[in-house]
Amino acid sequence: MTGGMCRSGRKIPADDELIDKDGGRMMEFLAELSSWEIYATVCGLLGILGIVFGAIARKKFAMAPSVLPLLAIAMTTPLTERLVLPYLADRYPVVFANKDLPKKIDPQITLKKIDLTDRIYSYFYDLDVDDDWFDAPLVKSAQLSDLCNFLVPKFDSGEASLANYIYQLKGKDYSFSVDSSDCS
Questions:
Q1: Domain membership of residue 10 as a residue range
Q2: Rg for the chain, CA atoms, rounded
């Protein structure tokens, strides 16, 4: 819907202006919450809507005030899993991905941070190994198939043009990059 003017001469904002009125800060805040907090927020909002609609519908349907809040709360899981979480992951991929970090990948590797700048993803890892030896090209070749399975959809959609993998071992950085030509 596009914006327009109402009878009083005031501007009616377009739908996208209403959604982004806060610059997306509220949705970004939601993306930063833990999973259970997202579910609780959705449940609370749906419960309030159920109570409001139940109160409105009580004149026509006597059971509405007790049934509608329960139905609204019962919709929490499907609505959160099918709409809210995919929306947040799509709109705020880096915020959504970083909220559970740092994360142990295995006993020796910890994913510390994910960054997205100018369609370049950067993955930052800490290595906890006794050996000072690390061969980035060897790690790249060993992981390339799995990395490409993960990255090709991002390359094809235009979401990413490059992925950098930065490993820190005893204060030294080792890195390699993967682009679409690596995956063809």
A1: 4-93
A2: 23
Last residue of a domain, one of 77, 93, 109: 93
Which residues have C-beta within 8 Å of that of residue 97, sequence separation ≥ 6? 114
For the chain, residues with pLDDT lower than 70 are 1-24, 64, 132
State how many domains the chain has: 2
Q: What is the CATH classification number for the domain harbouring 110?
A: 3.30.300.250
Beta strands per DSSP E along 83-140: 103-106, 109-117, 120-127
Paired with 122 in beta bridges are: 115, 164
Q: How far is CA 80 from CA 6, 8, 26, 46, in A?
A: 35, 39, 16, 11
DSSP 180: G
**pTM (2 d.p.):** 0.63
